[in-house]
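Anyone? Bumping this.
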Amino acid sequence: MNTAETFAQYVLPTYGRFPLVPVKGEGSWLWDDTGKRYLDFCTGIAVCSLGHCHPALTKAIQEQAATLLHCSNLYQIPQQAELAKTIVEDHVGIAGKVFFSNSGAEANDGIIKTARRFGHHNRQTNGEPRYEVITFTQSFHGRTLGAMAATGQKKIQEGFDPLLPGFRYCPFNDLAALEAAISPITVAILLEPIQGEGGVNCATPEFLSGAATLAKKHDLLLFFDEVQAGFGRCGEAMAWRAFCPEIEPDGITWAKGMGGGFPIGAFWVSDRLIDATTPLSSLMGPGSHGSTYGGNPLACAASLAVLKVIHEQDLAIHARSMEAHIREVFASWDQTTLTVVRGKGLLLGFAIDATKMPIVEGKTPAQVLCSKLMEKGLLTVPAGPEALRILPPLTVTTEEIDDALEIIRSTVQELTLI
Ligand SMILES: Cc1ncc(COP(=O)(O)O)c(C=O)c1O
């Protein structure tokens, strides 16, 4: 079978795919169908947090698949209970409850529904429900109708209107604009502590703490989308703690790295009281939300194995020290095409000076660089038109980082227009 031709004939062309046919992975490495080996710093876009085919994850999936693969959420799935407990106690560290989905977009839809429930509970002074969620320009929250409407990027929404109403977009890191956007119908603020797809843009500590203060003042829920950034990737178990550890969100969403490659997502909602007697987490009661597959035994066993390794091997701390190493090596380079390293932990972006790059019809500078790196044996991801993102596995070694950086340095030198 010719994979490219079969793709063209049978798969909807929703992705602009690179000409690579992956067939095998191990640790930080991925092989294509010609036997070529790549250092994988794309990791399925921040998914394979333990690298490819980590023995603990493979074993957990094999054992669970041979024991009980799926059962309904009508029953008390023990792996789901244990995973929720682990997430709350070992990773979030704030009392609350978890709902399991299959993806990040679904997790965001669930938390948006939670915001709407809250808006029916704590209403406007005229008795009408509140419903508007403030999100941010350049954000990305997913492709479902709800998550797409939450996403502050026109190009993602183009041609799909009418959008789900109830969202208002503010410039990121602009506290005055956020304050001005709050109105009687506002019910929540949803933001990524690091905008991954939007170009690797970090929230400033002042912005996060200001948003938390505004949320308190106006009785709004503060939600963090950590679908890409959570569970160790940013150098802390929870991404927001890498920027502003003193604040406490009301809800968080995750997916990607929590399953290490097995599809799973989740959202957590705080147990905090929203009136004298009602915990926020009680608003999503029986019948309010559901998912046939979400939190099934196999997905939860896989995620438990991943989170156990991240927690026990302190991979968040490892991510932090790898970031420091990357910044040190980058600072030693004699070049000006990559202008700065943005991001935290192992969610990093190299900003590209587009004027120094060759122009390729129909391709952004980030795509041009990414394609060239792929030829040289390194997989990376564009983040917007002018940033190259690297998302190595959290298990990556210093030697692998050094190899990848040398490929980036020499490729940039080769591409740079003098
Ligand atoms: C921050 C963020 N939120 C949500 C999503 C959507 O996740 P999924 O593709 O699993 O639906 C993504 C995916 O890239 C993301 O980066």
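Late reply, but here is one note on the structure posted above: The chain has 13 helices and 17 strands.
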